[in-house]
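When time allows, look over one protein, given below as sequence and tokens. The question is which stretches look regular and which look disordered:
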Amino acid sequence: MLKLRVITAIILLALFLLALFVLPDGGWAALVTVMVLQGASEWSRLARFSSGRANVFWGLTLVMMLGLIWFDATHTVAQQTLPHVLVYAVSAVLWLVIVPAWLMAGWKVERPLPMALVGWVVLIPTGLAMLDLRGDHPWWLLGMMGLVWMADISAYFTGRKFGRNKLAPSISPGKTWEGVAGALLGVTAYVLVAWSFTGLSFKLLPVLFVASWCWVGLAVFGDLFESAIKRQAGVKDSGALLPGHGGLLDRIDALTSTLPLAALAMLFPYLK
């Protein structure tokens, strides 16, 4: 299984880098829209929507993404800032307030409308963030995603080797506090290496470390939240799209809780 996971990850990374740096803006927007729609399809399965409701959810997700892309194409960057901030602010409320309470209380939300609303708040800001962060410069998006990937990889191997103390056994029995510690060490090394190439002041390094540790916490929320939704649905994976990994949501769960907040932080200086 590990070999299959690694092979799939390498292929996905190569394809992603090619798309990130080669595709024109329109091609990138189309790719991101397809990813969001795949996520919507998998979310429908986790929410156990009927086929009719799943089609409505998928169709409205498409309309939202196309609407955002059209809005950006017909408005200046200054005009886009406030609407984008509002989208990301809704995401921030979900991940910083609602999800922690959801996980601690062990809520089981099965009504279609709340599950649809949560699905949109998970997916739409993530898609928009992938457009915004790449639009400023591809390296910004790659750097943010790389941070999450480093945390995920470090947690996986540290947990396999040293994991003893369960992080949230009722939600995701495989995750351990040792894995979280490994993630913190991994992103610390990642930030140190990245900083060495930027020429930024040494005084900023502690700030970057603290920010990266907060990012690990957000990534953990994203991971645990999807695990909780899967447990509620009674499935192991969100889908079977990626051999050895499961569905798309299984691979972007930590990105859904981090990328929108990264985009929000980058937009704050432009608010007037």
